[in-house]
């Protein structure tokens, strides 16, 4: 899938991703990798002017999902089975870039790594995520 295909799939099947407006966009799709950008708004901030942990978790989860979709196609029931995130530096208000890459893509499991950086390139969080891929329907011969 290309960036536009991923965005069209999300619009059709997960419109709640854009409940705050179009703050998330797929920037590029490359072999084994996806780049996603977040333009946060006030809802994504916690007191003190920091992008919230739940926001960083969400964009990490979505970026990992997107990199899997980019490589297996539009499968809505790929689900997160584990996501481990480390908050490395304070995420000041402003755009964030998420770089997701595949570590493993098997028949039933996929593992991805996501680095989230601010505009200065500072790493603000790092996550690894495992997803369950549903079995493909077997072909029947009649």
Automatic annotation (TrEMBL):
Keywords: Hydrolase. InterPro entries: ACOT13, HotDog_dom_sf, PAAI_dom, Thioestr_dom. CDD domains: PaaI_thioesterase (cd03443). Pfam families: 4HBT. It comes from the Bacteria. Residues 48-124 form the Thioesterase domain. GO terms for molecular function: fatty acyl-CoA hydrolase activity. Gene3D superfamilies: Hotdog Thioesterase (3.10.129.10). NCBIfam families: unchar_dom_1. Belongs to the thioesterase PaaI family. This is PaaI family thioesterase.
């Amino acid at each position: 899938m290309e960036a536009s295909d991923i965005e069209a799939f999300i619009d059709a099947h997960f419109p709640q991703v854009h409940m705050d407006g179009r703050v998330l966009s797929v920037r590029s799709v490359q072999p084994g990798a996806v780049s996603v950008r977040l333009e946060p708004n006030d809802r994504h901030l916690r007191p003190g002017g920091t992008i919230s942990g739940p926001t960083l978790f969400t964009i990490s989860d979505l970026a990992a999902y997107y990199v899997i979709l980019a490589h297996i196609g539009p499968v809505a029931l790929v689900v997160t089975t584990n996501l481990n995130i480390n908050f490395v530096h304070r995420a000041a208000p402003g755009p964030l870039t998420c770089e997701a890459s595949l570590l493993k893509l098997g028949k039933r499991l996929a593992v991805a790594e996501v680095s989230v950086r601010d505009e200065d390139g500072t790493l603000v969080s790092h996550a690894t995520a495992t997803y369950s891929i549903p079995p493909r329907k077997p072909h029947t011969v009649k």
